[in-house]
């Protein structure tokens, strides 16, 4: 993935993520998050402490893959030039929103790449946003928890493929609501796909000017 794909483009393919994909997923997250305001807010030291960022990212995504009853984990892969079934985008759907996830605290008290107070403020804003906008749907929703595309492969449909899984699964379930909480960077994709903005929360520590907005969007399914 260095300077972008060259030569004939083959279709991108969505498939379930496995533990064998973790190295590639870490690269997608590491390269795909620098322009995301939420990542900058929570992990301002990821370039200074890349080992910490990679360690906790690996544990986080391993936990998603290890909980298929809670999360539906997917990658979109590319096969072209020197890439063979290489994950270039990752998406995590919460398919059981009222089931508590298993796992750790993402290293909030020990990782050096993170701002602990910002992680807490961001998590609290996410909880407020979900409760105000989506709690009324209970289990009858599919919540897009995470979507990241490598910068070299953006605007080629990978994000849409990951979102389309929710549309397909909603139809199988008889029309469950699709919900997502997006950063300013991701909101444009969901706007394009027909999601409706239903709320906005701000992650901010008292006494600081730095902040980040989190948008709540939903797509009712018929």
UniProtKB/TrEMBL annotation:
Residues 12-222 form the N-acetyltransferase domain. Transmembrane segments: none annotated. PROSITE patterns: GNAT. One of its GO terms (molecular function) is acyltransferase activity, transferring groups other than amino-acyl groups. CDD domains: NAT_SF (cd04301). This is Acyl-CoA N-acyltransferase. The lineage of its organism: Eukaryota, Fungi, Dikarya, Ascomycota, Pezizomycotina.
